[in-house]
Amino acid sequence: MRAFILPTLLILSIFACKKPVDTSFLLNEHESPEIKLVTLRDTLPNSSLSNLPIQELKGVKATYVSGRYTCYFEYNANQQEVLRAIDILPFDINTRLSDTQCRKMDGDFSLSGKRILSNQEINSSAFFWSINPEDFTYYECIKSPMRHTILLDKYSNKILHRIEIES
User: Which residues, other chains included, contact 110 with Cβ-Cβ below 8 Å and sequence gap of 6+?
Assistant: First the structure.
């Protein structure tokens, strides 16, 4: 009987161990994106921004070989009008779930998301990541295929806006 216990425990322990998840494909994709300057008006439909006075300060786009890209913007505008403009953006109803309104996120914005980004993307979008999260209220809105993360400065009309696009 004891002769069966040890081999059985050994076999069970092999199946109980989880194989580490291979994330090397993420690291390869994130090594060297193409970085270029971009404006908010280049990224979103003109119809959604036509009546919205926006003073654009910065905008960068990081594009990866896979076709995925992320845009970062810093601009001044009426915060509530920007949220309403994002609310009415069109979305692809055939592919994924989308939000009909921007959702206010509970708690402070987490800067931990940058840990999976390339150094080039982090450096080019430092204005977005080098903040005090307590100074902002943040919202998220999925308008397939776009995911909007919108940080509203509590003390001014400054807006930090991140748009992720999966391809």
Answer: 133
Which amino acid appears at position 119 of this protein? N
Contact 61, 38 (CB under 8 A): yes
Position 13, amino acid: S
| 11-25, 31-45, 102-116, range with greatest mean pLDDT | 31-45
66 closest CA partner among 114, 117, 92, 28: 28
Q: Give the model confidence (pLDDT) of 52-93 as tens digits.
A: 888 889 999 999 888 889 999 999 999 999 888 887 776 666
DSSP labels for the chain? -HHHHHHHHHHHHHHHSPPPP--HHHHHHTS--EEEE--HHHHS-HHHHTT---EEEEEEEEE-TTS-EEEEEEEE--HHHHHHHHHT----TTTS---SSPEEPSSPPPGGGGGGS-HHHHHHTHHHHSS-GGGEEEEEEEETTEEEEEEEESSSSEEEEEEEE--
